[in-house]
Amino acid sequence: MTLTSLYLHTQFAPTAIGYLEMILVFSLMGSLIPSAMLLILPFAALAYFFAPPTFNNDPQDLPVVVAFLLASIVGTHLIGKVRREREVALEAAAGLRRSEAELRDVEKQWREIFEHNPVMHFMVNATGMVLNVNTFGATQLGYAPSELVGHSVLKVFLEEDHPFVRERLGLCIETVGQSHTWEIQKIRKDGSVLWVRENAKAMQWAEDKLVVLIACEDITERKRTETALRRSEAHLAQAQELSRTGSFGWNVATGEVHWSKETFRIFQYEPSTKPTPQLVVDRTHPEDRAAVRETIDRAFQNEEDFEHEYRLLMPDGSVKHLHAQARAIRTASGDIEFVGAVTDITAAKQAEQQLRRSEAYLAEAQHLSHTGSWSWDVHRLEFVYRSAEVDRLFGFDPQEAVSIETIRSRIHPDDLPGVQEVPRRAIEDKGGHFEHDFRILLPDGAIRRIHSVAHAVVGSDGNVSELIGTHMDVTEQHAARERLERALAALHESEQRFRDYAETASDWLWETGPDHRITRFSEHTSAAGILATRVVGLLRWEIAGDVEAEPEKWRQHRATLDARLPFRDFIYRTITRMGSPIYVRSSGKPFFDADGNFLGYRGVSTDITASIRADQAERELRKAQAELAHMTRVTTLGELTTSIAHEINQPLAAIVTNGEACLGWLGRETPDLSAARCSVEWIIEDGIRASEVIRRIRALAKKGEIEMVPLDINDIVKEVIALLTRELVSHRVSLRTELEPTLPMILGDRVQLQQVITNLVINGIEAMQTVKDRPRELVIRSSQDDMGRVQLAVTDCGVGITEDDADRVFTPFFTTKSSGLGMGLSICRSIVEAHGGSLSIARKQEPGATFQFVLPLHKEVVS
Amino acid sequence: MSTPPLISIVDDDGSVRAAINNLLKSRGYIVHTFVSAEEFLRSPHLNGTSCVIADVQMSIMSGLDLLTHMRAQGYGAPFIFITAFPDDRVRARALSAGAICFLAKPFAGQHLIKCLDTALDKHRGEASA
Question: Is residue A627 part of a domain?
Fold first, then answer.
């Protein structure tokens, strides 16, 4: 406008009018601010371009300017007012138009929402016919809405759910305005099924019709999750039950405790019980209670994981072993919660105890059988396993690893090559069993003998990787075997020794069967002249030649055999194959098998023909000696006649005299009967005395069999003295006896020993015949010598014996006396020697001599 | 018979001694017995004895020794010897020594009484003479 005006060189007024028109136009456009701006700009433009000099210079312009200002203000104001009225009218019309459109939009929006709400919506009437269904819902079911509308809603339900659907619809109709919710399966067009949660409500529709609005939420996924969750819960419960592991949670801050079903089962509480940590403590075995409490307290205080094992004492008294483990977890709210598992390990514990026990049994068995088991790694050259018994056998420390050098140091050096060679071969041969024996040399020098049995185990590479075996301590067996071998050797030696004894002591050995027939006959000397072949199978009494002659002897022998008693020195006569009679002495013992069954007799026999003959000769000799002894006794008696007569005459004199006296007492005017009776009593006494003397004489004169009986030597001495008193008196010899009071018994013939003592006493008396210068004393002394034998000495104080005579006194027919046979001392020596003793001169020279003899003791058993 | 004669018996055999004592007492004699010659010699009856009956064989002092001893002492009492060893030599010696009798045991009682009577008669005669 300004530029145009400049170009045209218009005047101030037209320009202002142009400006004014422009301002008014702009006000008509309704904009106050541009109008105001336009008002100022034209003014500025007028002032600048058209009025140099300014207003002052051109006063004619001032009215124009003022008119311009007023016209533009008034015009603008009027135009603005008209404009405002017109705008109000326009706004009213536009509001009307706008609300109509908005209504349409809302409906459309609701329609869209209904159609595309990701929730299935059905509207059905009371009969169940679908009045409406949203597109989303129909699409979900694989239908177009038109395919559903007008049809029964049952179409989209499973056949078996139809009654339920009808029942639900009925319920909604009955309770108008109330919401009902249920979950149900819907069936798609393609037959697949989806889970929905239906929210339904009946409402009044137009014209008093009732419709049921149903919103269905697809909960298939949730249902699947739920099923999966339920399944995994079931699995968990089952797993817990199977593994006997219960789970628990314990929020320390809230004190909330959760137990799984299995936890209840383990602790044997009703699942309805409210679980608390105290319940755990209550069930805990009293012995473990403190430890459990401590573990829980510590975990509680330190807020840390815990793990422990403890026992429960169940109401029925049984004991359960539990292993519990829990982790301290911080929850979202910052609390500490323990989540854990508790496992019933009773079975495991029992199995463990069982295992431990069976391990103990095995160890015990190994210990008892002295057998150790081991496994050896052939590459690493070390024990993979070794039982306690192996350590014991080798003397290893169970705690320490054992190097191959240590093992070698315990092997006996002589056995080391074998111990290395045998396994080496097994390794080379790639497997198989091997056995070998070796000795362990313990540090203390003790030796153990080991029998080792092992097996080489082949690894996956085909090479031997391991040796598994046992070491058995056979030291004792070895020692036993050695003992047995030694015993066997000793037995052989003993057998040989006894065979030697038997063969030396006998001429042959024999054996008879249960029927007493000879089964074996070892003739080791041919001296007997009996052929084995001729006697085997025969009975002893079939061989013997004296069965008829001595039936009693054989009867007794057969009784002994029948009683199965041993017999000894059974003597019988038989005939040699040369036809000469021999005497056999046989001894035998029955023998039995292990069950005690009689098997027969075993024994030895000796040809004793020679000794029988010798015995016979000796018997003859004895007889002769006895006769001689008797003869000398009689001779002695002859010599003693005077003394003996005296001994008899004394009592006889007394008897006769007393008899006369008796008659005298009776013949008195007044017979003295008392004195007479006394006389008769004396007569009787003296009669006895006389007969005693006669008995002694008869005994000495007796020519009887020698009778060996136990005797006290002192008794013999006293009897001899009784006979010789008068002899001693008549020879003016005083007798002294020193008899040891407690002497053992000797075995002898009374008469023969009396004869010996009598002889010695008489010799002593005679030896003192010439003694005039000293008392004639004879001493008889009995004692026991150093060897315990009974000794008797007779000592005189006579002339003694010359050296020459000493050698000859015991020879027959030696005598220094004018009378007598000179057989005395010779016979005495024979008698003493026949008694197993000896007679000697102990002292020869004056004064006097001592003769003494010793006799062996009488013993029941003489070896 | 004023006083009964006193007889002494000397014998070491107890039963013989007792028997003679018994016999003589039954006949009313007064008798003393002695086990040995020594005892008799010591006894107070030595002097009053009218007759000695003595055994010949006694230990230590025999009957003959006793006779010899008494005669030597002046005692004249008659002697009767008794013996169980009737030896002729001893008999001869006894009788020659003055014994009234020498009797062998056993002897008959009557025989002894007879000897005793003889001895007492002799003793009486000697005493009265």
Answer: no
A415 vs A425: CA distance, rounded Å? 16
Number of domains into which chain A is organized:
7
**Pair (A790, A823) in one structural domain:** yes
Query: What are the residues of chain A with a beta carbon less than 8 Å away from any beta carbon of chain B?
Result: 642, 645-647, 649-665, 668, 672, 675, 678-679, 682, 685-686, 689, 726, 729-730, 732
DSSP string, A252-299: TTT--EEE-HHHHHHHT--TTS---HHHHHHHB-HHHHHHHHHHHHHH
For residue B84, give the 3-state DSSP assignment.
Answer: coil
- Split at pLDDT 50, 70, 90, the class of A814 is low
Task: Tell me, yes or no, whether A361 and A390 share the same domain.
Answer: yes
Q: Is the pLDDT of residue A526 over 60?
A: no
Which residue range forms the structural domain that includes residue A827? 706-863
Asked which of A322-336, A571-585, A693-707, B115-129 is least confident by mean pLDDT, the reply is A693-707
In a domain, A652, yes or no: yes
The pLDDT value recorded for residue A55 is 47
Last residue of a domain, which of A705, A730, A750? A705
DSSP line for A399-426 = TS---HHHHHHHB-GGGHHHHHHHHHHH
**CB A575 within 8 Å of CB A545:** yes
**Does A789 have pLDDT greater than 90?**
no
Q: How far apart are CA A281 and CA A290, in angstroms?
A: 9
Q: What is the mean pLDDT of residues A149-164?
A: 89
Residue B72: both structure tokens together: 């030597």
Q: Are residues A459 and A391 in the same domain?
A: yes
DSSP state of A48: I
- CATH number of the structural domain spanning residue A850: 3.30.565.10
* Span A171-202, pLDDT tens digits: 888 888 889 999 898 899 898 888 888 899 88
Return the CATH number at A170: 3.30.450.20
Query: From the candidates B23, B61, B62, B103, which should be mutated to test the interface with A, based on the most A CB atoms within 10 A?
Result: B23
Those residues with Cβ within 8 angstroms of residue A809's Cβ, 6 or more apart along the chain or in another chain:
A801, A825, A841
Residue A487 included in any domain = no
User: Which residues of chain B does A677 touch, with a Cβ-Cβ cutoff of 8 Å?
Assistant: none
Same domain? A851 vs A745: yes
The answer to whether residue A181 sits within a structural domain is yes
Report whether the peptide linkage leading into residue A812 is cis, meaning its omega lies within 30 degrees of zero: no
A737 and A801 belong to one structural domain: yes
Chain B residues with beta carbon closer than 8 angstroms to that of A682: 15, 18-19, 22
| Same domain? A681 vs A748 | no
Percent of all residues in chain A with a pLDDT value above 90, rounded to a whole number: 11
Helices A609-639, A641-667: inter-axial angle, 10-degree rounding: 50
CA-CA distances (angstroms) from residue A807 to A222, A476, A761, A803, A825?
Answer: 150, 71, 20, 7, 12
Q: By the 8 A CB rule, do A306 and A298 touch? A: yes
- Cβ contacts from A onto B, under 8 A: 96
Tokens 């050896």 sit at which residue?
A: A376
Question: Interface pTM (ipTM) of the complex?
Answer: 0.87
State the pLDDT confidence band at A35, using cuts at 50, 70 and 90: low
Let me know whether A711 and A856 are in one domain: yes
What would the pLDDT profile of B17-43 be if each residue is shown by its tens digit?
Answer: 999 999 999 888 999 999 999 999 999
How many Cα atoms within 13 Å fall on the side-chain side of residue A72? Answer: 25
Percent of chain A topping pLDDT 70 = 91
Indicate if A741 and A848 belong to the same structural domain.
yes
User: Is the confidence at residue A492, as pLDDT, over 90?
Assistant: no
Domain boundary among A671, A705, A739: A705
